[in-house]
Structures are given as structure tokens and as C-alpha cells.
Design goal:
Order of helices and strands: HHHHHHHH
Radius of gyration: 19 Å
Largest sheet: none
Shape: globular
Distance between the termini: 20 Å
Number of domains: 2
Oligomer: single chain
Structural class: mainly alpha
Number of strands: 0
Length: 262
């Protein structure tokens, strides 16, 4: 399976997701879940076939990590919809996924079989996949935060704020697991669990920022607006951790994570 097939799988998946979103707005839950799941199945099939073709996990380049993010966004939307019945979440997650899909179509990156020795660790694949799922859940929480701040404007009722909280709980839990697997990978590949290079420093900043949001929600119930701003700031830190560090002068040639800049 070559990367040239991506556009066909992507179009089919997006069409299923759009149909699922439409059915969610029409309050046909079973149809919404079914079509969204079929879209995920199609998209996931491409990932599996690409994995088989490359003979390695498709996780090395930024384009490949965007591939996983494009998959996990609708997946996170589906989980949120099934659990809390917010009919708009499937549409929002689809739109965000389409953005990343379009970037991958317009800016394809090298997808070859080469994998540097440090990435041949068994911890590499679970570390990145766990992180991509965490990013998707935290992306969904950011969508909810934007909705409550600038669309609904009254910062929502208890149920809607609880949705934000639950998404952050899940996302931060998986981020923590991702950091732990990353530390084990780093120990095996480089001989140390943590080195405070730019990627790891921003990962710590992001983790503490989301933890700040949780503490504000637990101890400062009347500060909903402030906590939502912290939530969105945390998502900005997350973007910096994910891809923004690639443009920092301090990361050029010195960061052990610059392998993903191909």
C-alpha cells in the first residue's frame, strides 16, 4: 500500500463521517454511530496497510503522526457522542480531522521504510499512539472550551463543564501514560529517562498546565471562565510540544526528537 492511495481512503472516510454527523444532528443515534464507525474502519484499514507496506509503524514523520491524529479525532468524537449525546461533537471532530487530512494531501512527506535505531524500540509505537489518542481527547476538550466561551458564552451548565472535565481527565491520563512509556523508551534508546531537551520541557509544561486546569475546576468552582482560558492555553502548549518545537533554534541539531522533521 503506497501513500498515493491515501486520498481515496481519506475521501471515503470523510464521507462516512459527514453522514454520521448529519444523522447525529437529526438525532438518529444508531445511524450516526454506525456511519462514523465505518469511516474509522476505512481510515484504520489504510493505516494498517501502510504499516504493513512500510514494515514499520507509520509514526516517524510529522505527516504520519497527523495520520493518526486524523483517525483519533473522530474516534474521540464518537466516544464523546456515545457517552454524553452532544450531537455537534461529531461534526466538529470531522472538521478538525479534515484539516489534518488536507495538510497531508497538500504537503505529503517522505514515507519510506527507513527507521533510525532509536525508533526501533518496542516502546516507540505504543508511546506515540497513546500520545495521539491523548491529543485527540484534549483537542475535543478544547473544542468544548471554545463552544462554552464564545458560542454559548455563559460558560455552560454543570453537565457541559463536566464534559470538559471528563475529556481532560481522560486526555491527561493517557498523556501521563505516554510520558511514562516515553521515559522507558528513552532509557532503552539513550540511557536516561529524561533529558530536559526542548520536546521534553514543553511536554512537562503542557502536563502541568492541564493539571492546573483540573485543580482550578476542583478548588475554584466559581472561576469557570478563567479555567476555560487555562484549558485553551494548555492546548496551545500542546501544539508547541507536538510540532512547534521543530521551529525552535534550541531544537536544531541538539534535540533527540528532531528525527521527525523529515
Amino acid at each position: 500500500m503506497s501513500w498515493d492511495w491515501f486520498i481515496y481512503f481519506a475521501i471515503a472516510s470523510v464521507l462516512f463521517w459527514i453522514i454520521g454527523s448529519w444523522n447525529a444532528f437529526k438525532e438518529f443515534k444508531i445511524r450516526a454511530c454506525t456511519f462514523t464507525f465505518i469511516g474509522l474502519l476505512v481510515f484504520g484499514t489504510f493505516i494498517v496497510l501502510l504499516w504493513y507496506s512500510l514494515e514499520r509503524p507509520p509514526l516517524r514523520t510529522m505527516g504520519e503522526t497527523r495520520l493518526w491524529y486524523s483517525f483519533f479525532l473522530p474516534f474521540a468524537g464518537l466516544i464523546t457522542y456515545m457517552r454524553w449525546r452532544y450531537k455537534w461533537i461529531l461534526g466538529f471532530s470531522t472538521i478538525l480531522s479534515v484539516v489534518f487530512i488536507c495538510v497531508n494531501i497538500l504537503k505529503p512527506e517522505i514515507h519510506n521504510k527507513a527507521l533510525m535505531p532509536a525508533l526501533q524500540s518496542p516502546w516507540f509505537a505504543p508511546h506515540v499512539i497513546i500520545y495521539m489518542f491523548a491529543y485527540a481527547m484534549l483537542g475535543a476538550s478544547a473544542i468544548m472550551g471554545i463552544y462554552l466561551l464564545w458560542i454559548k458564552k455563559n460558560q455552560g451548565d454543570v453537565k457541559e463543564m463536566a464534559l470538559c472535565d471528563n475529556l481532560v481527565y481522560v486526555g491527561l491520563s493517557f498523556m501521563t501514560l505516554g510520558m511514562l512509556t516515553g521515559a522507558l523508551w528513552a532509557k532503552e534508546a539513550w540511557g536516561h529517562y529524561w533529558s530536559w531537551d526542548p520536546k521534553e520541557t514543553w511536554a512537562a509544561v503542557t502536563w502541568f498546565s492541564y493539571l492546573t486546569y483540573i485543580h482550578m475546576r476542583i478548588g475554584m468552582h466559581n472561576k469557570r471562565k478563567a479555567s476555560l482560558y487555562v484549558l485553551l492555553l494548555s492546548f496551545v502548549f500542546l501544539q508547541m510540544c507536538w510540532w512547534g518545537i521543530n521551529y525552535l533554534p534550541s531544537a536544531q541539531g541538539s534535540s533527540i526528537h528532531t528525527y521527525n522533521m523529515n
